[in-house]
Amino acid sequence: MIEEIWKDIKGYEGLYQVSNLGRVKSLDRICSTGRSVKVEY
């Protein structure tokens, strides 16, 4: 089984990451109310 390794996307550090398997994910963010939110596209 291949281990999935995630790295930041240049220019989108802290927002999006891409894995060595080609998957892309949006990272959790802290909104102005102080709550953590997950943005789905």
TrEMBL record:
Residues 4-36 form the NUMOD4 domain. It comes from the Bacteria. Gene3D superfamilies: 3.90.75.20. InterPro entries: His-Me_finger_sf, NUMOD4. Signal peptide: none annotated. SUPFAM superfamilies: His-Me finger endonucleases. This is NUMOD4 domain-containing protein. It comes from Oenococcus alcoholitolerans. The lineage of its organism: Bacteria, Bacillati, Bacillota, Bacilli, Lactobacillales.
